[in-house]
Amino acid sequence: MLVLRALFLTLFVVYQANALAELEEVFAWKELTFDWPNEDAKNAAIKDGEYVPENNLPLGLDRWKNKLFVTVPRWKNGVAASLAYVPLDAPINKSATFIPYPDWKANTIPKGDTKPESDNHIISTFRVSVDPCDRLWVMDTGLADILGSPKQISPPAVVIYDLNTNTLLKRYTLKEHEDVKASSFFANIIVDVTKDNCDDAYAYLPDLGGYGVVVYSLKNNDSWRFKHNYFHFDPLNGDFNVGGVNFQWTDGVFGLALGPQDSTGFRTVYFHPLASLNEFSVSTSVLKNKTLADDPHIYNLFKLEGKKGDKTQTSASVFDEKSNSLILTQLNRDGVACWNPKKPLNSDNFALIAHDPEKLIFTNDIKIDDERNLWILSDKMPAFIYRKLNPQEVNYRILKVKVDDAIAGTPCVA
Question: Do 217 and 167 belong together in one domain?
Fold first, then answer.
């Protein structure tokens, strides 16, 4: 009987392994390197402490044509550039150098107490979003040396670039008291727009520290803030064990994903606090309506979709319209999962689609490109923050897989 049980468990493990998606490792770095103007510039940056290789951790990503954008937040001093890209049309080098975007000058921190010379600057960004109108939206926190001696060099702002010309289109500074609270921390940006109406774009900015969502309207050049209980963290699910590091976080609303347009032209926004096992939703008809931001009667316009299951805390999420699947990172499970909103959200319908205890340690961000490739960035961030990464090991990876291959054989397939 024991032999049969052991055989059954072995076959089950093998089946589970085979059922998970096979990921292509596109990039892998021990430490990040940058495309310096010349060797003298690099050496000077190292000497002045402006480039400390071990302090550069990639965190967010998105793709536009032959560019894969990657963010490098200024967690510590010595981050060479907070916004960069790696080319996808060059011969693939798994440890490709980062090219600052839009250029080196925009990514250079002013010395002393001086302010940036122009609106065309990026101090520190966590995530970016490419929209259908060939624009790159950046949430610039303006905060440098976050884990050391934090310095607010410029106020939090939405920064928009024209990707065809690599020029700045707009910098919108969030309202100091209305949008930004004392505990605010903006680490994500989701853009709601269609290609046939580029001027009427909205950006949704989750505030993980201040437990709110700020909405920015490009057409009106205005912003407003929503608050709701669902934006807060769950005190029962703030414990994490990732890559051998145990830590506790109180991060609130974090990941947002846009579902397809309904018959009225609005979408469903799926969202979750990072320290939570629940998934929630709200219609963009609510978020786009500035007058509702201060309405105390909108509580029931927000919906609890359900509980994903044990240890399903999620950072980023993205929606694939063709398969109608919400795809979510799984921090405590070293992987990525999916759920089809046509089915109730519970542990039976929530499926792990990728898992690797080494390559997927802290899956920080995911995106789906126009070819329906699912891009995954993992970066061992807990060890970076609470311990120290080993520069002799691969610490940061970017992997990809076709969405249909990833979700095949799971409940996410309608």
Answer: yes
Please list the pLDDT of the chain residue by residue as tens digits (414 residues): 444 444 444 433 333 443 688 999 999 999 999 999 999 999 999 999 999 999 999 999 999 999 999 999 999 999 999 999 999 997 778 999 999 999 999 999 998 888 998 999 999 999 999 999 999 999 999 999 999 999 999 999 999 999 999 999 999 999 999 999 999 999 999 999 999 999 999 999 999 999 999 999 999 999 999 999 999 999 999 999 999 999 999 999 999 999 999 999 999 999 999 999 999 999 999 999 999 998 989 999 999 999 999 999 999 999 999 999 999 999 999 999 999 999 999 999 999 999 999 999 999 999 999 999 999 999 999 999 999 999 999 999 999 999 999 999 999 997
Q: What is the CA radius of gyration of the chain?
A: 21
Q: Which residue has the tokens 């907070």?
A: 82
Per the domain annotation, does 23 fall within a domain? Answer: no
- Let me know whether 153 and 205 are in one domain: yes
Residues 339, 308 share a domain: yes
Judgement on whether residues 208 and 282 belong to the same structural domain of the protein: no
Domain tally for the chain?
2
Which class for 385: exposed (0-12), middle (13-18), buried (19 or more C-beta within 10 A)?
A: middle
d(CA 6, CA 47): 58
In a domain, 10, yes or no: no
Same-domain pairing of 108 and 179: yes
At residue 186, the 3 state secondary structure works out as strand
Strands in 253-258's sheet, in edge-to-edge order, are 253-258, 268-273, 278-283, 303-307
Q: Give SS3 for 183.
A: coil
Q: How far apart, in whole angstroms, are the C-alpha atoms of residue 295 and residue 90?
A: 52
Taken in order 67, 73, 76, 79, is the CA torsion positive or negative? positive
Q: Does 178 share its domain with 256?
A: no
pTM summary value: 0.94
- Tell me which residue has tokens 């240890």: 311
Those residues whose C-beta lies under 8 Å from the C-beta of residue 357, and which sit 6 or more positions away, are 334
Q: Rounded to the nearest 5 degrees, what angle is found at the Cα of 44, between the Cα atoms of 40 and 50?
A: 135
